[in-house]
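This week, study the protein below.
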Amino acid sequence: MTDRIAQAAGSGRCVWLHGGDGGPQLAWLEPDDVSLTYDARRREVTRHVAARREVVGDDIFDVLAAEIAAGAPDDRWYGYFGYAARSDLPARPDDILPDAVWMRPSHVESLELPETSGQQVVGATHEPAPQWYRDAFESVQEHLHAGNSYEVNLTYRATTRSDLTPLEAFTRLWRVNPAPYAAYLHHDMPGARAFVAGSSPERYARIDARGTARTLEAKPIKGTTPRGATAAEDTAAAELLRTDQRFRSENLMIVDLLRHDLSQVCEVGTVEVPTLMAVESYASVHQLVSTVRGALRADVSSIDALRALFPAGSMTGAPKLRTMQIIDEVEATPRGAYAGALGWISGDGRADLGVIIRTLLTDGSGTYTLGTGGGVTVQSTAEDEYTESRWKAERLLRALEA
């Protein structure tokens, strides 16, 4: 099945998505099909058709909305918004990949990958946090105690070399860590190369459309524990996640943030939380997941709704703007595509995107980057948070091993 993805990748531009309506799907472009890339440093959106490149705007959301409006209702765009995709928010541009890539393919087919249950990996033992992490953690704590934020998602970038091709890296990642929003994106265009191999479990946003009614849903994850080595330890780990006050308070703060974000674009009185703090289990982790849902207002386009939620509250903290300012101050490197959103947007108003976590990123040079981290509150310790960040990254690094 991955041979089929490799054939599609031969076109230079393709994407395989696990989640979404219609099941897993593979999409690829002909030379005359359109793709868009965004460079946040230059504030340029570039339109790619065959060998032609043309700067067509300075806001990826606006340009994408115009392209969708000019197309047919059954057109579907596939791609990602990187963390710096919104120019009105404090986020450093990426220095490796485009800050957004979106593609309109001529070809879409259903493609299931071989079933895999993954390989259970228990969490790492506690290890001392390095000084650079301690310094960032202490800066975050100062802001938390000063009341500038309630929770800060503190992350960092890890870099490694591998002889694996991006598709080989994705294939290995799928085998060891399958996930609901697993994805492979391949955009091999000069000056705008981007290869994304992801195994994300988190829904950023889904928009369902029935007639003129549209429902917006987000499923933030906040609270993660490693699986146990035995059945008893695994049950205990899930119960700890469900009952621990620190995990519950982290999740509740992000749910409140999402309720606020949805209320900006949804009908008054329709925002609800049908599921609060459910434990969901994956090959390597248990996670605490909530669902926030609302009815989109008629005057709000689907692109406007996705912009209003961006970036995911689970990847910033609360309040969003002030916390993003803190993140920009304390994190040493850009986040790039990490902490953004990847999926599809349809001309009929529907959309389904996952949060870009548990993801390998490369420009095809053999250097891979990944982001990892977690939510920090006044109850957090540097050792616990750093240990959590390491076992989140472990499975990604394992996929790159010979």
Observations:
- Residues 2-399 form a domain with the Anthranilate synthase fold (CATH 3.60.120.10).
- Residues 245-263 form the longest helix (19 residues).
